[in-house]
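FYI - complex with zinc ion, inputs then prediction.
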Amino acid sequence: MKVLKVKLNDRSLKCGICHSRIANSSKIYNSELLFIPFCYNCEKKFDKEEKKVILTLLESYGGYFGIFSREDYSLEKDLNFIIKKNPKINSKEDLDGINSKLLHNALLHGITIHEYISKLELLI
Ligand SMILES: [Zn+2]
């Protein structure tokens, strides 16, 4: 992973994943695909593929990792909501869109991709 050399004159530099302020210029990392900076904690927490998925979803749907409380997250509630809104799934695109929205909502609640998959597996 490439470490960016950035002078931190801009105090508003925030992690593209968790929105924490990046105070140490030696701890700024950059997504190779989207050129979005992220912090040391996110660099450690997520592997390359996870960062790609997370940054893409946050770019598409907004928000940031952990914007909402983990205690408020319920996969069952999300699934019930989606089922009510989408009574018919007609194509792979429909399914991909639903999967993306479910994972995005998990991320907003600070649930990692690994945790999300574990929760899904418990329901199957
Ligand atoms: Zn971060």
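Residues 66-123 form one domain. The beta strands are 29-30, 37-38.
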